[in-house]
């Protein structure tokens, strides 16, 4: 499976937002690998705008709470950054899931949406997300 191939259900706007989000996460993954040699010792968080997948400030925070404290926009959510990079397809799924959670009332500064980060782990949980999204 290639995480860089646009899912059939993704609009161009959604796919662009997913690529921006993956880039925002991967920037910190690469920076930490260069600095520490093998990646972050513990996870950090980056703020992402639900509207366009961009990070409003590009900073990596040690905790989700700290990231939320520095953001004024309630339409931001917070992505965990660890040692592994994120594909645009994974970003697309997480962004869509987070948008749906926000529409249902999740306040990201108070609640953390739990989403498996590996596609094969989430496949049985939200099958509608995967209709046309994977090559399985």
What does this structure look like?
This protein has helices at about 10-35, 65-70, 90-105, 120, 125-130; strands at about 45-50, 75-80. It is mostly helical. It has one domain (about 10-130). The chain has a two-stranded antiparallel ribbon with strand order 1-2. About 30% of the residues are buried.
The poorly predicted ranges are none
Order of helices and strands: HEHEHHH
Number of helices: 5
Alpha-carbon distance between the two ends: 8 Å
Kindly state the percentage of residues in helix.
40-55%
Mean pLDDT: 79
> What overall form do the CA principal axes indicate?
globular
Write the layout of secondary structure elements.
Layout: H1 12-36, E1 44-49, H2 64-69, E2 76-81, H3 88-103, H4 119-122, H5 127-130
Antiparallel strand pairs: 1-2
């Amino acid at each position: 499976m290639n995480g860089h191939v646009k899912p059939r259900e993704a609009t161009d706007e959604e796919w662009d937002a997913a690529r921006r989000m993956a880039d925002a996460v991967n920037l910190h993954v690469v920076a930490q690998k260069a600095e520490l040699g093998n990646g972050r010792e513990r996870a950090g968080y980056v703020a992402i705008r639900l509207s366009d997948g961009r990070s409003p400030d590009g900073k990596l925070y040690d905790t989700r709470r700290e990231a939320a404290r520095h953001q004024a926009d309630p339409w931001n959510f917070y992505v965990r950054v660890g040692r592994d990079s994120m594909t645009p397809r994974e970003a697309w799924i997480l962004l869509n899931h987070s948008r749906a959670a926000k529409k249902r009332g999740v306040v990201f500064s108070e609640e953390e949406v739990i989403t498996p980060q590996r596609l094969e782990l989430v496949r049985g949980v939200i099958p509608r997300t995967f209709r046309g999204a994977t090559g399985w």
